[in-house]
From TrEMBL:
<dbReference type="InterPro" id="IPR056729">
    <property type="entry name" value="GMPPB_C"/>
</dbReference>
<dbReference type="InterPro" id="IPR029044">
    <property type="entry name" value="Nucleotide-diphossugar_trans"/>
</dbReference>
<protein>
    <recommendedName>
        <fullName>Nucleotidyl transferase domain-containing protein</fullName>
    </recommendedName>
</protein>
<feature type="domain" description="Mannose-1-phosphate guanyltransferase C-terminal">
    <location>
        <begin position="298"/>
        <end position="413"/>
    </location>
</feature>
<dbReference type="InterPro" id="IPR050486">
    <property type="entry name" value="Mannose-1P_guanyltransferase"/>
</dbReference>
<dbReference type="Pfam" id="PF25087">
    <property type="entry name" value="GMPPB_C"/>
</dbReference>
<dbReference type="InterPro" id="IPR005835">
    <property type="entry name" value="NTP_transferase_dom"/>
</dbReference>
<comment type="similarity">
    <text>Belongs to the transferase hexapeptide repeat family.</text>
</comment>
<dbReference type="GO" id="GO:0016779">
    <property type="term" value="F:nucleotidyltransferase activity"/>
</dbReference>
<feature type="domain" description="Nucleotidyl transferase">
    <location>
        <begin position="10"/>
        <end position="210"/>
    </location>
</feature>
<dbReference type="Pfam" id="PF00483">
    <property type="entry name" value="NTP_transferase"/>
</dbReference>
């Protein structure tokens, strides 16, 4: 465990508005990291995990969203957790490693021994304290969280080979075309401040190469228009790959749940995973009811204190109900997220769906998906302020904001 003299800081990479287009329409009016999973913002789950890091001095959110999008959240979470949380806005995308280097003065302000780094769009148990114990023993400049997955899915991630005895990272390839390994990079790291020297070396080599290289006028124009190429540095390809096999990077295995949150379908899957985790970590977040004075809750369900659920409703498993939502008599909810201000009228059914802010589901209406979280139309997604009228059936659809559905629709994207 960390000694009493050690200081740690944490960095959560939140990206920016030029990314996350696959998350639409849920990210049209809300930064993706603030989308609620199991009742809390996506970024809140890694922040809660960081709170358990010993001798934690600061948590930094690094991205290129406008600062105003995070102002209220950062203020509220700092007060709630009693840990300073600060949003650092990049002037442009610098890459995951370049973003760290860009704010190195901020990150080194507390003279940290270790810098925890994680991607916001990762859903896992974040075993940061156990990782720190291993990292301290390895005595390298970085430790990666890794997991074994199926050979079929491994190519979607960074594949790696490590020494089974020492844990040393021997080889790393980001989304390789040919199979390398069933072990993948989970996007959670611990680095010593030496990581900044490694990033600086990459950036310096690029600048030297750009200066010395003779180019044609056409190539020179291309380089000029691609501003910031020399300071765009990625953690995976530009740092992990060249440092592998040099006794500088090591791995720590997790056998618990892990997913990437790239699409709304995966957010619904990850909300279920976090709800299940609450059973061990925060059972007070889970709703309880007897079907008499309160609704019947089956499995893991989160209900915001301001939401109103009729006692005759049947809710669960894997349901998250946000602030000021209203669920009427006889309603059945399974595997869904209701966002702020949603109204579900009597005897409606919602399954495998995400219902956008201030949307309304009519009496005896049915909104459902097939429950395939990876498929484009595997769940139904209603954007903000969508009205589904009485007795209408919506199956496996994506509906953009401010639409009214008065006829049955099946497997459509409604613009």
């Amino acid at each position: 465990m960390a000694s009493s003299e050690e200081v740690n800081v944490a960095v959560i990479m939140v990206g920016g508005p030029t990314k996350g287009t696959r998350f639409r329409p849920l990210s049209l009016n809300l930064a993706k990291p603030l989308f609620p999973l199991a009742g809390h913002a996506m970024v809140h789950h890694p922040i809660l995990a960081c709170k358990k890091i010993p001798n934690l001095a600061h948590i930094y959110l690094v991205g290129f969203y406008e600062e105003r999008e995070f102002t209220l959240y950062v203020s509220a979470v700092s007060n709630e957790l009693k840990v300073p949380v600060r949003y650092l806005r990049e002037d442009k995308p610098h890459g995951s490693a370049g973003g760290l280097y860009n704010f190195r003065d901020w990150l080194m302000e507390d003279d940290p021994t270790n810098i925890f780094v994680m991607n916001c769009d990762v859903c896992c148990s974040f075993p940061l304290s156990d990782m720190l114990v291993a990292h301290s023993k390895y005595n390298g400049i970085g430790t990666l969280l890794v997991k074994k997955v199926s050979a079929e899915s491994a190519s979607e991630f960074g594949e790696l080979v490590s020494d089974p005895e020492t844990g040393e990272l021997l080889h790393y390839a980001e989304k390789p075309e040919t199979f390398v390994s069933e072990w993948i990079n989970c996007g959670v790291y611990i680095f010593t401040p030496q990581i900044f020297l490694a990033i600086q070396d990459v950036a310096s080599q690029r600048k030297d190469h750009a200066t010395m290289r003779r180019v044609s006028s056409f190539e020179a124009l291309q380089i000029t228009t691609k501003s910031g190429q020399t300071d765009f540095v990625r953690l995976d390809q530009d740092i992990l790959t060249p440092l592998a096999g040099k006794k500088k990077l090591y791995t720590f295995e997790t056998t618990e749940f892990w997913e990437q949150i790239k699409t709304p379908g995966m957010s619904l899957r990850c909300s279920a995973l976090y709800l299940a985790q609450y059973r061990q970590t925060a059972p007070e977040f889970l709703a309880k009811g007897d079907g008499v004075r309160s609704a019947t809750y089956i499995g893991d369900v989160y209900v915001h204190p301001s939401a109103k659920v009729h006692p005759t409703a049947k809710v669960g498993p894997n349901v998250s109900i946000s602030a000021n939502a209203r669920v009427g008599p006889g309603v059945r909810l399974i595997g869904c997220i209701l966002l702020d201000g949603v109204e579900v009228k009597e005897n409606a059914v919602i399954m495998h769906s995400i219902i956008g802010w201030k949307s309304s589901i009519g009496r005896w209406a049915r909104v459902q998906g097939i429950g395939n979280y990876a498929a484009k139309l595997g769940i139904t997604i209603l954007g903000e302020d969508v009205s589904v009228e009485d007795e209408v059936v919506v199956t496996s659809c994506i509906v953009l904001p401010h639409k009214t559905l008065n006829i049955n629709v099946h497997e459509e994207i409604i613009l």
